[in-house]
Amino acid sequence: MIALVVLAVAASIAANSVVQMALGVGLVVAPGERRGGRFLAPAAAMALSGFLSWPLFAYILAPFSLGFLEPLLLFPLASLASVVADRIFSGRDANRGSGSAYSAFGGLAFGSAWLALRLSSGMLEAAVVSISCAAGFLGSGFLLDKIRYRSLIEPVPRALRGVPLALISAGLLSLLSTFVAAAAFTALGALR
Amino acid sequence: MMDRTPGSTARGPYRFLAYAGLVVGASSRLAHAVAVSIALFTVFTLSSFILGASAPLLPRRGRRFVTVFIASFTASCFQLLFSLYSPALALDLSFFIGLVPVTFMASSASEYALSPGTAALASLREALPVAGLISAFALVRESFGYGCLTFPARSGAFVILGSDASSSLAIRVLVSAAGGFMLFGYVLAGLRRLRSPFPDSAEQARVE
Fold it and tell me: Structural domain of residue B177, as residue ranges?
């Protein structure tokens, strides 16, 4: 049980897709339409690609011994998962730009699949990692989106309004997540 | 055709947000930045060339998926060749080399329907500013963050500039993801001071 909690902390905070791996930043902080639920499709794609990658690479592709080139097949898988999630949650064909499902939502689904392969040793762990990745993205995504929006209406220096302040806040969140993860791992170590 | 979806970053300096994973992640060391820049040039140029050459054979409906596979394949080829030169660095950078096809798909280079040579050239022009930004970030982050500069070598990376004094004065936070984000934010703010309007000026007006 403690191992699963450690995995969840690692995937959602220590290796947060947005603030630690800088994936999908364009999707989160870029100026554009603020539409409720726009993070649902990327989060679903992250959960799906992370969950699918483990059995695919552990059982189906394992006999081919692809070695270190194996992870590069992750991108087509992540892209496919993103297109499926985009169709289900956004109700439209896969589109273009940094938010495109074909780019695995700016690499978010790719990063989730990568972490699931690296951190898991079974289906349950892969499920925990992929769901935690998606939850970490949703948390940091909503927070950064809110910071960007508030910076447009609060009295902050004009040059910093919007995206620049969201990026600087992402940096601070990144520092915070590092400290939170360190504290969480120390506490979990003490519990053991 | 311009992207109209949320998160579209097709114009202005904000288009670099689509490449933030590479810009923030691969620019902590100059050695990494140089290797990833070479990967960018190779994958962008080769993928566009193959796409241009095979355009008449590609189905209309699944064209984007074929592009994903072509970009992944060229990145795999680069990874294989690069690992022959420097296995340690190739292993270190396997995630970032895996991100290059993601960057290719996020850029407009994956949408060119031109002759092979023209598509490759246009794609190279698309990759150049990204590689330049990664290298410029790496020059700042490594020199101030580690107090040295490195370059790719067979054994991984060798130090081309550095001293004990400079490394003891280093600001380590600059080489972390946090430093990359902050630098990115301040560079965008600096650019805004120099040139305007930015794409979100319309949104700003709407909010006000």
Answer: 6-196
Residues of B in contact with A165 (CB under 8 A): 185
Residue B113 inside a domain? The answer is yes
CA distance A68 to B81: 12
Q: Give phi and psi for B159, each to the nearest 5.
A: -80, 120
pLDDT tens figures, A117-165? 888 888 888 899 999 999 999 999 888 888 888 888 888 888 888 888 8
Q: Is residue B73 part of a domain?
A: yes
Chain A residues in contact with B181 by the CB 8 A cut-off are 19, 22, 167-168, 170-171, 174
**Into how many domains does chain B fold?**
1
The tokens for A168 are 């600087």
What confidence tens digit (pLDDT) does each residue in B111-148 have? 766 788 888 888 888 899 999 999 999 999 988 888 88
Instruction: List all residues of chain A from 142 to 181 with a beta carbon under 8 Å from chain B.
Output: 152-153, 157-168, 170-172, 174-175, 178
Continuous segment of H or E residues that includes residue B159: strand B156-162
Q: Is A168 exposed, middle or buried (0-12, 13-18, 19+ CB in 10 A)?
A: buried
Kindly determine whether residue B17 and residue A30, on different chains, have CB atoms separated by under 8 Å. yes
To test the contact with chain A by mutation, choose from B27, B63, B65, B99 the residue with the greatest count of A C-beta atoms within 10 A, namely: B99
Query: For residue B10, is it within any domain?
Result: yes
B152 found inside a domain: yes
